Predict the structure of DUF2283 domain-containing protein.
Amino acid sequence: MSNTKPYYTVIGSPVDYEKLVAYVFVKGKCVALINQDNGTDDIRIELLDENTRGKGIEFNILIEALHDAKRILLNE
């Protein structure tokens, strides 16, 4: 049995944003983008993956992935 997490984060700098963003991948699909353009006290999440409609993502995995991505993005 593997202890590998079903999610990972990639930090990027797309031209549409002033500051770095975090791309959140769950089971190999990019499901969210976290941006900090409004400041670290107003972090925004954009849900991206249209392929999860009707299937969904396990709630606890998504929340854990988002918390982890925020921590990485803000170097906490």
